[in-house]
Amino acid sequence: MILKLCLLGDGGVGKSTLAQRLASGIFKSDTTITIGVDFQLIPIHLNLDDGDETQRRVDVAVWDLGGENRFRVILPAYITGADGGLLLYDTTRYRTVNDLMDWVTIWRDNTPKGIPLYLIGSKIDMVSDSNLPMLDMNRDDLRNYLNIDPHFYISSKTGYRVNEVIHKIVKEMVEQKRFLSTV
Fold it and tell me: At what angle do helices 100-110 and 132-146 cross, to 10 degrees?
C-alpha cells in the first residue's frame, strides 16, 4: 500500500525542506522553488494499532506542492486522491497565515470528508522565546478559524517533532484507508 501525503502552503514556508528531512533525515538549506509539484517515496516504519507489536513499513508518497500563486490552478489535480495533508505556515512570517483559508478550501473541495489535514507551524527553531507566548495565543484562534486539529510546531532544521508528526498522520491515514475499505 502506498499512501499519498500532500504538503501545502505558501511559497517559502518550508515544504521542500520538510520533504527533504523526511526522505533523508537531513536539513538542506539550499532548496529551490518547487515548480508545480515534486514528490518522493518515503518508507515509514511504525507500530499500527492492530494488535501486532511488529513495526510495519508503510510507503508514503510525499507530494510537495508548489506554493506560488501561479501554480494554484493545477493544485486540484494533484490533491485528488490524497490520503492526508500537512498545511504549513511559517511561524516567523505571519503573513503566511493570510492564505491558509484558501489552502483549506482547495483541500476540502478536492478530498473526501474525513481525510486528515494537520496544521503545521514551521521554522519554530527561529522563534525567540519571548515570541512563543504570542504564537501560542494565536494558535488556538487559528485552529478554530480554520477548523483544523491537530496543530503542531516543527523544525525541519533541527528535526523537532518531525517524526512525531509524520508517524501520527501516517497512522491516521492507514486507519482512514482501512475504514473506507470496509464501508
Answer: 40
